[in-house]
Amino acid sequence: MKHPVPDSMGNRRVLILVDESNVTSASKVANRKLDWLKLRDHLVNGRELMEMVVYVGLPPAMSEWQTERDKKNKFVFWLRSNGFLVVSKDGSPTDELHYKANVDVLMAIDGVELSTQMQPDVVTLVTGDADFAELALRLRRRGIRVEVASIAHTLGAGLKTSANGVIDLGPLLASFDFLA
Predict the structure, then answer these.
(1) Which residues contact 89 (CB under 8 A, 6 or more apart)?
(2) Whole-angstrom distance, CA of residue 99 vs CA of residue 162
(3) How far is 44 from 124, CA to CA, in rounded Å?
(4) pTM of this structure
(5) Within a 10 A sphere around the Cβ of 126, how many other Cβ atoms?
(6) Closest by alpha carbon to 111, among 124, 129, 127, 130?
(7) Nearest to 54 by CA among 166, 153, 155, 149
């Protein structure tokens, strides 16, 4: 049985890994502007933040994508300027309007490597993507508490059952400004 994440977990050290496209999509579906600083504070919840790593897929480095790429790079600069560690990857076009960057593999590899190097007490995966269920299980086998932060209705069942606890981001997103 899954238990909600307690309000305070003392002096526990937390590593937060964010699937940017997943959390951004969830906020758009909720018609809310994502407040990254409030999201970070909410997830840290009084614990010691070791690092918050945001995995960002960039539009392809092609002339037809340049405007969107410039906008995304500006966002990446803002994240870095506000203390977030950003891992970015160039995407490839899937058609004229869409691209895919597949940062999931980078996030999964980092999840294992960073948890080994940093030795956090808690790893929070900010995604609803069930592909991260195996990562959650591997971290738990190392004695690390794994939390998943997502919108309840977009959280994959396999990921939910692989984590120690779930943080429903719905109420937090509801407190953010509406999209313009």
Answers:
(1) 55, 56, 57, 58, 101, 102, 103, 106
(2) 29
(3) 9
(4) 0.92
(5) 26
(6) 124
(7) 149
- Total number of residues shown for the chain: 180
**9-174: which CATH topology?**
Rossmann fold (3.40.50)
Per-residue pLDDT of the chain (180 residues; tens, 9 = 90+): 444 544 445 579 999 999 999 999 999 999 999 999 999 999 999 999 999 999 999 999 999 999 999 999 999 999 999 999 999 999 999 998 899 998 999 999 999 999 999 999 999 999 999 999 999 999 999 999 999 999 988 999 999 999 999 999 999 999 999 997
Q: Is 176 left (phi over 0), alpha (psi -120 to 50) or beta?
A: beta
DSSP 75: H
